[in-house]
Amino acid sequence: MLTQIYNGEVLAPEGWIKGGSVFFEDGRIVEVTKSSRVQPGVDRSVDAYGMYVLPGGIELHCHGGGGSDFLEGTPDAFLTAVATHLRHGTTAIYPTLSSAPLPMMEAACETCQRLMQDNPDSPIMGLHLEGPYFNPRKAGAQMPDAIRTPDPAEYTHIVEDYDCVRRWDVAPELPGAVEMGRYITGKGVVAAIGHTAAEYPDVKAAYEAGYSLATHFYNGMPGFHNVREYKHAGTVESVYLMENMSVEMITDGIHVPSTIMRLIHRMKGVELTALVTDALAVTDSNSTRAFDPRVIIEDGVCKLSDRSALAGSIATMDRLIRTAVMQADIPLRDAVRMASETPARIMGIYDRKGSIQRGKDADIIIMNQDLRLHSVYSMGVKVES
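RESULT FIELD:
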């Protein structure tokens, strides 16, 4: 069935197309044109009424939603969380596992792999492991008992036996972290630094070993600081100095203040900055209890109950875009690209997703002038809200 979304303000790679149309069939975009009217031969037409027609969001860092956490490791938990974020404009997702014992990681890996095999058109693009190889001093809301140093027997088993694993976050200063980075990137897994106390030499060594991404930038890492009377560059400044290292930015308006959002946008730019939610199971849920019993929900964010650290967000993709534009004054085109194109490039799926152009998957969202979500299409199928 050939579908035409017409009379929209379409964001294409070359820029905005006012009064534009997107044609798609069998889950793929077949044409993008300047056309404000229905064309002959179309089976189904959708009037965008001048609203923004945008590429669907690609979520690199999300722990759950709708009351379910990916660490539960069950198909129901995965499908519930994915469907929750799909309704909010995330048309491709990398489910995230926080630090956990090996059996829990294996169970989630098996489920993810099976779901991807069963449905080639699934929004699930692969698994993101946030830990367990982190610096205990920067654990934040990670389960402290699960944190450990890189174990070659463990991580080679995971990477070799579960090809769904697409990304792994590690504190680069830990013994064996550099070697792990070389190994996993050699297997096609994106290596990221996170929950770290790394200083410049650690970050530089990691970067040279293949680490290419900084997890939830500014969170779980130190900035400029003193060691006794001497000043040291922290992880933050070191990442800025790694010319091609990408960063994640949680634009819920809480994890990173608007001034820092603007700084990241200015310093790293659109091509190296990805918007992420870092959302927990309670996102878009009636539940007030997180998967981790230490976590509370307060002031629109998740925190440890002793209020020593933020523990994740309750944000969704539409909120990320809206907050970046309305609170941080980031241009809409840039915010959308950071939610779609940049994550796709980071994960190596830009040939399929991340922009509205001929031949790519028909993953499309429509937002009104107030940047409220109007509708979502995943592989050309409208998602029911």
